[in-house]
Specification:
The protein is of the alpha+beta class and about 110 residues long. It contains 2 helices and 2 strands.
């Protein structure tokens, strides 16, 4: 059975993947040693491969604040620095503009 198409892991990109979870435009260069650092490997597997695509699909590939469908990013509802988690329950889809506004508000609320 063929796999379902998935979206690029790069924030803001909703193109279909071709290799390594990214579209042709964002595919990483081949590394001669063929491995990522342990930190990047964990981040990629947990957030970018599992939570981000599910949050985008759940939110209908649109910003939950203004409804925009371009320059989408997946944001933590409660920032990690303030006790938020890396789970789908703490993820929301925002356009770049709404994400910047929310981040500025979060920083002011210390």
């Amino acid at each position: 059975m063929p796999r379902a198409a998935s979206i690029c892991l790069v924030s803001g990109c909703v193109k279909r993947t071709s290799h390594s979870g990214r579209c042709v435009e964002h595919a990483p260069p081949q590394r001669p040693w063929g491995r990522k650092s342990a930190r990047n490997q964990l981040r990629d597997s947990a957030w970018e491969r599992q939570v981000r695509p599910r949050a985008l699909a759940r939110d209908g590939f649109a910003c939950v604040r203004c409804g925009a469908r371009e320059a989408l990013e997946v944001d933590h509802v409660v920032p990690i620095a303030k006790g938020g988690t890396w789970t789908l329950d703490n993820a929301q889809t925002l356009c770049r503009s709404c994400h910047r506004t929310k981040t500025a508000q979060d920083r002011r609320q210390k």
